[in-house]
Every structure is written in C-alpha cells, then in structure tokens.
Design brief:
Helix content: 25-40%
Order of helices and strands: EEHEHEEEHEEHHHEHHHEHEHHHEEEEEH
Largest sheet: 6 strands, mixed
InterPro entries: Alcohol_O-acetyltransferase, CAT-like_dom_sf
Protein name: Condensation domain-containing protein
Structural class: alpha+beta
CATH class of one domain: Alpha Beta
Radius of gyration: 24 Å
Distance between the termini: 48 Å
Strand content: 15-25%
CATH superfamily of one domain: Chloramphenicol acetyltransferase-like domain
Organism: Hypsizygus marmoreus (White beech mushroom)
Shape: globular
CATH topology of one domain: Chloramphenicol Acetyltransferase
Number of helices: 14
Length: 545
C-alpha cells in the first residue's frame, strides 16, 4: 500500500510529513476557533483488586501512552504551515513518539465524581489546552473518595480523530495498560501508511490520477449544487444574533437512557420495521421538536407570524458519516477499520414541514394533542422510509466519496474568516437578534447514531486472558464531550451494556438548557410511542408526507 507521507529528514531522527485532507483541514480551522470540535473522552475505570493499583502509576501510564503513540502516530504529530494562510501539514518526528512531551500527560486527585466532572468540563470550556504542537493529551484523575476508581480523560483534536478512532484509543489504552506483556513493536512506515487522509484512500485513486481529479471536480460541483438548494429551515427556540458565528460556544451535554428491557423492545421493533434506530432518529427528533414549538405557540411564547413561517418550512438535519467501509479495501483490512485518524464525511437529510396533524388548527390557549394525533404511525414510517431513501441515494451514487469530502471545501473559506475576526477581536458590531425567517439555512439539529458500542469498547481488560482468569480493570462508564460549534445542537444515540442512550450536545450561548432537556424528553416519549412495542408492526397503511 502506497504511503502519502514523505521523508523530510533522517538526521538526527526520521521526520515525515503529509498534507491535510479537505475534511482534516476543515477541522483544523475549527480548532483554531478556541478549540471548536475538540473531543474529550471521559472514562471511569474500576481497579478490581487493590494489588493492581500500580497500573495507574505515572511510570505505567507514561509507558502505555508512549506505546499508544507508536501504534497510532498521529497522536504524537504536530501541525505546521507550509505557506502563509495556506497549506497545512502533519509532521511526525520519530523520536517524539518515544516520550511524553510538555502537557501531554498529567495526573491529579479528585475528591468526588462532581469534581472529576468539573475538571472534564473545564478542559472543554476553559482555555484551550491543545495546540498545533499538541494534538492529543491524557489526564488521569485518581478518586480519593473511591480509591478503586480512576477517571481517564483523553483529549484529542478532531482533525486526527472521529468516533471510531476515539473508541480505538480508549480500548487500546486500557488493554495495553493492564497487559503483563509489553506492547509490540510497530513499524513506523507501516503505521503511517494507515494514517492517510480519506482522499488518499479513495478506491481507484492510484490507477488514474487524471480521472480521479476529474471525478473530484464533478463531485465538488454536485455537492455545491445540493448545498445551494438547501434553504430556510428552523430549530428549537434560540437566541441567534449577528455575533453568534464569531463567539466560541459554551458547550453542555445531557443524556437519557432506556432500561435494558425497553431498549430490547425498541431495537426489536426497528428490526421488525426493517430499519435501524439511526434511520428513525431524525423523524423522532422532528416529532419532538414540533411538540416543543407547538407548546410554545399555544402558551403565547411564539407569535402568529413566526408560527406561520415555521409551520410551512421544511426541516433539515445533518451529521457525520463513517467513510471507512467505503475506502480502499486493502487499507481497511490491514487495520484501517480501527486506525486513529479522521475518516468521516457529511450528509444532509430533509424532512417536510412540521407534523402537526390535529394540532394544525389550534390556537393559543388550546391543549397540545397526543403524539400520534400529530403524526400517525403509518406516516411516521413513511417519513422514516424517506430518510432511508435519502441515505441510499447518497451512498449509492458513483461519486459518493467525492461528494462527501468536497462538502468540507465549502466551509473552509467561511471558517478562515471567522477565525480571523475572532483572533483580531472584531466584535464591534451591535449584537442584535436575527429573526427566525432571516437566519438563512438553519439545520434543525445535527447528529447521528453510533450503534452498539460494546464491540468497540469492551468492558473488561486486558482483552487477552487465559480461560478462567479474572479481569484486572472494568470500564464502569464512558462518554464523549464535544466542544460545540457556535449555535450547534447535536442529538446522538448509542447502545452500551444493552441499554439505548440518547444524548445532546449544545451551545449554551444560543439554546436554553430547560428547552433542550424538554426536547430530549419529547424524543424519548416519541421513541416509546412509535417503537416501544411490537403490537403495531403490521400497520403499514399508505399515507402522504
């Protein structure tokens, strides 16, 4: 497999470089905006026997982190500019993979769960701790009130990671940390070949460079035309001003979980309907958002003009898409499936106007109808099929990869302007609210479903144990915190320990916490209503959108 990395120096150590791909470059400009899109993975680990407390000694953690960098060299990379305001490259020096540099690893005590969570929040919302010289870091928090519990915070810039990569980092760290045998030796050039950009791994790219450039140009045009057709839309009630795009987000997150029995019924119902929960999620979210907005209108918090605008608007969602299964097959089979690098594209899905049903003629002071009085089960399924059809059209397009990655190009120029204005403190304009109809293209929310994470992040370590040998470490809980983009509202889902979880990340500068939690509760209620049982599975009546 050819490598996109070039050897720049052999003395005194090997130094390699490669240019950032388009998606990586987009996230680079995100992170220049006070760490926007940086990810923090927060895991709570139990040491099952006190005799193994030494596993979290500074020596063992350092050894493990160094071994992890040698396996996934982007964790030890830095960013460098090769042309003023232009080309960015990853730089990897072999000797830097052999030690922990300043700020790369730290250990401290936490007196409680609340203190540990506060420290994690400060890493996301405080002064940025990552930089062009430090793209990944690890923090170990030792609980003084629960001496058998340790919090592991893994903080990584999004330009070198995604959801799959974050899972690999945590899984491999805990496995290496708890294994008696030392980590294996990794060939640097082989590992670098895996850490290629998505563009370098497009199937057939090496066969005909001219044809590849032609295909990318067409994909870019298609992506641009599709984006231009997206107009209008609306989201939860929010405060969106002229300065919102130039003000770093204050990130927050919240979660709700279904019981094991509830989760089983929901997943079984989805299978019976021939769809995944990820397909249903945008429709559930739309039903929930409609109910929040309708409640605001009926209580007089939304005036007639805004309501009439909202009720006629389509609703667009977007989110990340795992590209790994669509990339070079040789790369995938040699370890690309779980390599630490950024391998996502982006998609948009459009649903028709709010599903009001019997609420369409209500007036302020009236009572909000039940969920299925606003959208019947057959119409719910019809909208789910629309989501599936849109996804199929995207991934089945012959230029799918080119269209997906080209979308990043559209955001790079805009991000450069935002970063420039923020760094030069150009917040001098009057900060007036922008009315909903004048906000341009508005995504109702972003998001995606990660599916079942148990096979990506097992609970017990080390992974390789002789039969009958008890595990040493047990993963009690793990989750990811995101430094949101300005105005971001992200709804996600995942399954762990046979429980379905719904979570939201949002910008507190724009969205009110009470409103966000109300929406999440409505998503949960809609899930229970449409997917909570199998009694209506055969209801396949036809309906118009």
């Amino acid at each position: 497999m050819n490598s996109p990395w070039t050897l720049q120096s052999n003395v005194p150590t090997r130094i390699y470089e490669r240019p950032l791909g388009l998606t990586e470059l987009g996230f680079y400009w995100d992170c220049q905006f006070n760490g926007t899109a940086d990810t923090l993975q927060h895991a709570i680990v139990e040491v099952l026997d006190s005799k193994h407390q030494h596993l979290f000694s500074i020596e063992n953690v350092t050894r493990t982190w160094v071994a992890l960098k040698q396996r996934f060299p982007l964790l030890g990379s830095r960013l460098a500019e090769r042309r003023k305001g232009g080309d960015m490259v990853f730089v990897i020096a072999e000797d830097r993979l052999g030690y922990c540099g300043p700020g790369e690893m730290s250990m401290q005590d936490a007196s409680s769960l609340a203190e540990a969570e506060a420290l994690a929040d400060s890493a996301v919302n405080g002064e940025r701790l990552l930089s062009n010289e430090l793209l990944a870091r690890i923090v170990i928090l030792r609980r003084t009130d629960q001496i058998n519990q340790v919090h592991v915070l893994i903080h990584v810039a999004h330009c070198i990671t995604d959801g799959i990569a974050n899972a690999s980092i945590l899984r491999c760290f805990l496995d290496m940390l708890s294994s008696e045998n030392g980590p294996g030796k990794w060939d640097l050039e082989e590992r670098l070949a895996l850490a290629a950009s998505s563009e370098d791994l497009a199937p057939g790219r090496q066969l005909n460079q001219a044809r590849h450039r032609w295909q990318y140009a067409i994909g870019k045009t298609i992506a641009s035309n599709r984006l231009a057709r997206l107009k209008g839309g609306h989201s939860l009630p929010r405060r969106f001003t002229q300065l919102t795009p130039f003000r770093p987000a204050r990130s927050a997150h919240t979660t709700t979980s279904f019981s094991t029995e509830e989760s089983k019924r929901i997943i079984q119902t989805c299978r019976a309907y021939g769809m995944t929960f990820g397909v249903a999620l945008p429709v559930l979210a739309q039903v929930a958002l409609t109910r929040v907005l309708c409640r605001r209108y009926l209580s007089g918090d939304i005036d007639k003009n805004e309501w009439e605008y909202r009720r006629k608007e389509p609703m667009t969602t977007g989110g990340p898409l795992n590209l790994r299964p669509f990339l070079d097959r040789s790369w995938y089979e040699r370890g690309g499936i779980g390599d630490v690098s950024l391998k996502i594209g982006f998609f948009f899905r459009t649903l028709p106007f709010m599903p009001l049903g019997s609420a369409s003629k209500l007036a302020p002071g009236d009572t909000l109808p039940d969920v299925q009085d606003m959208l019947s089960l057959p119409r719910f399924l019809l909208r789910c099929r629309s989501v599936q059809q849109q996804a199929n059209r995207l991934v089945n397009h012959p230029l799918f990869l080119h269209i997906s990655t080209a979308r990043s190009q559209a955001s790079i120029s805009r991000l450069k302007v935002v970063v420039s204005q923020w760094k030069n403190k150009l917040e001098q304009a009057a900060d007036h609210d922008i009315p909903v109809p004048d906000q341009g293209l508005v995504l109702s929310h972003g998001g995606s479903s990660m599916g079942n994470l148990d096979h990506l992040i097992p609970l017990d370590y080390p992974l390789s144990r002789t039969p009958g040998t008890a595990p040493i470490l047990h993963l009690l809980k793990s989750g990811t915190q995101l430094h949101c983009r300005p105005g971001e509202l992200y709804l996600g889902a995942s399954t762990t320990r046979q429980q379905l979880h719904l979570f939201i990340h949002w910008d507190k500068n724009v969205y009110d916490e009470e409103t966000v939690k109300e929406w999440l509760q409505e998503v949960r209620s809609a899930t229970e209503c449409y997917l909570g049982g199998l009694e209506h599975v055969n209801t396949r009546g036809k309906a118009r959108l």
